[in-house]
Specification:
This protein is an alpha/beta fold and 401 residues long. It has 16 helices and 8 strands. Strands 2-3-4-1-5 form a 5-stranded parallel sheet, sandwiched between helices. Strands 6-8-7 form a 3-stranded antiparallel sheet. Helix 6 links the parallel strand 3 and strand 4. Helix 1 packs parallel to helix 2 and helix 13 packs across helix 16. The two termini are 37 Å apart.
Length: 401
């Protein structure tokens, strides 16, 4: 098999050659765009799921759908140590630049850009009240003076509502819309989460053509609910899960068929058992199997030969890189979770982890909270904890040190 023609593409946020099993989500988003185009009220969207299920890929595909309809778009990736003011400014600036040339009243565009500039430059100071460092400020390339009295109060909730309302007005003037995409949304700081919820609430009441599409780990709905109780009704939540058998097979077969390569049924059985339907694993096992197979059709023996190689690559790049970020205390905590949850990585009670380690639950809170902040585990429900990475429990059981 020619490795140059290998169609499979395992990578963080990298679009697979065949986006299988996501037709329902794409169709639902098309309905949202259509409804907003007709002036109908719609909720913003939130995608949730484990690592490796393709949330970022789907987020990018939704953005492409919005762009194809002439919407202004911008995308950001949240970080737990960064305010959203700077990335939102940059993303919204991009969206307005896409819409600006189609707007007849350039004076209106300049007014909104002035608000955007004021919003961007009004960076909040540090915990002690000191001004933000120069390196943390975004210097917008906007050739209009910053507005005064709008978007510049320093209160993120007030400023974001004003900025997004004005930006939505620009889109409405030309019969278009704006979509702001936020990846890793669970890492947004609490005050900024509150601001996003407040802005979406206000925009939905106005019927404004601006929506937020977020993607994050399974506990993201709880993060939003903790900020604003009405967030449960404010967003439409879509759970992105692993692929069913038909979709997983299609993700392998369709790209291979374009290269005149086939799979024996037993090979597909073995690949599904190894990848467990997780899109990232489907690509990872598919790529190695292709490279090691002698010819078409690909057989179960080819998969058996490729599986250890794929697992070794995942152990270093997918699992190991995350494990290396943990402190010794955090690794001890995760190993206890794996022992209790087994290879499937089932959610376990935090009290059981404490018993397993012979410690009081309160003494383990710092390790657990740090693991949550690092995105390695999440609180599945009150009193329980689970891995954000599929098959992580299996990896830890195979690598006890």
């Amino acid at each position: 098999m020619d490795p140059v023609r290998n169609p499979y593409a395992p990578g963080a946020g990298q679009r697979p050659p065949e986006l299988a099993g996501r037709d329902a989500e794409l169709s639902a988003f098309d309905v949202v765009l259509e409804r907003i185009a007709y002036g109908r009220p719609e909720r913003s969207l939130v995608l949730t799921g484990l690592r490796g299920v393709g949330k970022t890929v789907l987020l990018n595909q939704l953005r492409s759908a919005a762009i194809s309809r002439g919407w202004g778009t911008g995308k950001i990736e949240a970080r737990p140590d960064q305010s959203l003011r700077r990335p939102v400014s940059s993303a919204l600036h991009m969206a307005l630049r896409e819409l600006g040339p189609r707007h007849k009243d350039q004076e209106s565009i300049e007014e909104v850009l002035g608000v955007l500039k004021a919003f961007a430059l009004r960076e909040a100071g540090g915990p002690s009240g000191s001004p933000a460092k120069v390196r943390d400020r975004w210097q917008p390339g906007i050739d209009v003076p910053a507005a005064t009295g709008r978007g510049d109060s320093g209160d993120m909730e007030i400023d974001l509502v004003e900025l997004l309302s004005d930006a939505a007005g620009v889109a409405a003037d030309i019969g278009s819309g704006i979509a702001l995409f936020i990846d890793e949304m669970q890492d947004v700081q609490p005050d900024d989460v509150s601001a996003i919820c407040a802005a979406c609430h206000e925009l939905s009441q106005q019927g404004a053509p601006l929506i937020v599409v977020g993607a994050g780990l399974p506990h993201l709905p709880a993060v939003l609910s903790a900020s604003k109780s009405y967030s449960e009704r404010l967003f439409r939540y879509l759970r992105i899960d692993r692929l069913d058998r038909e979709a997983a097979d299609h993700a392998l077969l369709a790209p291979a068929a374009r290269e005149d390569v086939a799979f024996e049924p037993a090979a597909l059985d073995a690949l599904y058992a190894a990848a467990d339907g997780y899109p990232y694993f489907v690509q990872a096992y598919g790529k190695v199997t292709w490279d090691l197979a002698a010819s078409s059709p690909i057989t179960a023996e080819d998969v058996a030969m490729a599986a250890p190689v794929a697992e070794a690559e995942l152990a270093v790049g997918f699992f190991g890189s995350r494990y290396d970020r943990a402190t010794p205390a955090e690794r001890e905590y995760m190993h206890a979770m794996a022992d209790l949850g087994g290879p499937s990585g089932a959610a376990v009670a935090t009290s059981e982890v404490a018993v397993s380690l012979g410690r009081k639950p309160a003494s383990l809170s710092p390790a657990r909270d740090s693991l949550i902040k690092k995105g390695l585990v999440y609180s599945a429900e009150r009193g329980s904890i689970a891995f954000t990475v599929p098959h992580f429990g299996r990896y830890l059981l195979r690598h006890p040190d």
